[in-house]
TrEMBL record:
Gene3D superfamilies: Beta Polymerase, domain 2, cca-adding enzyme, domain 2. Belongs to the tRNA nucleotidyltransferase/poly(A) polymerase family. The lineage of its organism: Bacteria, Thermotogati, Deinococcota, Deinococci, Deinococcales. Its cofactor is Mg(2+). It holds the Pfam family PolyA_pol. Keywords: Magnesium, Metal-binding, Nucleotide-binding, Nucleotidyltransferase, RNA-binding, Transferase, tRNA processing, tRNA-binding. The keyword Metal-binding applies. This is tRNA nucleotidyltransferase. Residues 227-360 form the HD/PDEase domain.
Amino acid sequence: MAGMFRRSSPLPPFPPGAVLVGGAARDWLRGVAAKDFDWMVPDPAGAAHLLAGALGGSAFELDAERGYWRVSAPGGVQHDLVPRPADVEEDLRRRDFTVNALGVLPGGRVLDVVGGQADLRARRLRMVSRENLHADPLRAWRAARFELTLGFRLEAGTEAAVREVASDLAAGRLPLPAWERVRDEVHALLRSMDAARGVGRLEELGLLALTVPELREGQGVTQGGFHHLDVFAHGVEALHQLIGRFPDAPVTLRWAALLHDVGKPRTLVRDELTGRASFYGHDKVGAAITAQVLTRLKLPGEDVRHASALVGAHMVPLPATEREARRFVHRRRALLPDLLAVMLADREAARGPMSSDASRRAYARGIERVLTALEEQPSPPPPLLRGEEIMALLGVPPGPRVGEATRALAEAAALGEVGTPGEARAFLLAWAAAN
């Protein structure tokens, strides 16, 4: 079995008594360079310092109680070292999938106790055992992620077991994994170029209902007009369109594209005579739902706010003139250019009867106007008057009125209507008289 695979990637130096396990062993057999190495060694501390010295990295203790160490090496490569168990083969039999239950010994000899090499060759994802999946239900999400990112296919019995885990989780017969762990698996899936198919796979396996049930509310909610898909499928297609155009889009932006219409089912109103659907306010409702979803998944607060704001703003009209484009940039600068990416993905995912080449070209021109205005003014112009000067000029005390005047003046400066302190004073006096 040793010559079965192309092993183009060199192995790192083996610490004394080490066994390389997990994803790095799997990827070496596939001829794929690994970034994360998992080692079982008799002396993790000593091995970590040896590796750090050999690789030009740094070693530090991860968990003193369990004896876990980590080495950070150049190029973003990471080595985790844990104590070698008395029975390595038994440890491998407790793992999730056969392709991850492989060990590599010094010299490249492979330790394969559950047929992982045959499954690698067949590009098949097979569980080590049903009991192992139930022992850690997160492995159900991992199955979907590995199927997508490795390009393997779930073996029929394993797929049935994953569905069973999802059913047991939904019924409360198994405890839900920590949300941070679920988030990490979903994010690994969302970062894939084929993330849209991955979302569909989560749905097929019964895992989407456990992860983002709000998204599923759009199933069967038809829209008409510009749309040819129901709300759920449209969100998935928008994610696909986003990644196709912006393959380096960060995960926060991918969430915004996927969830941009998540508020539609809760705002749906159908005309009794025509049956036409309307979703007034779905952007604002969707922003609130997005915040709930991403907070539940333990994303950082800044990411939650950004994705929620993108969803809340995705319905703003694009500018028809250069002046409107400058106002658009001024009012939504913090969301750009991400907002344009979400809006473009939304439009490109809609191919209903009202959609046409002409409407898409007009939409593209609006986006181009915004990008041009953003390029011309990449940062807001410096303030022309201080708050104290505005209060003295208008004869008002500190309060909301000063804030309103400051914002009005900042927008006028962004639009090019004022450019000097004198023009700013004249503008504010006229503004105060009219407001």
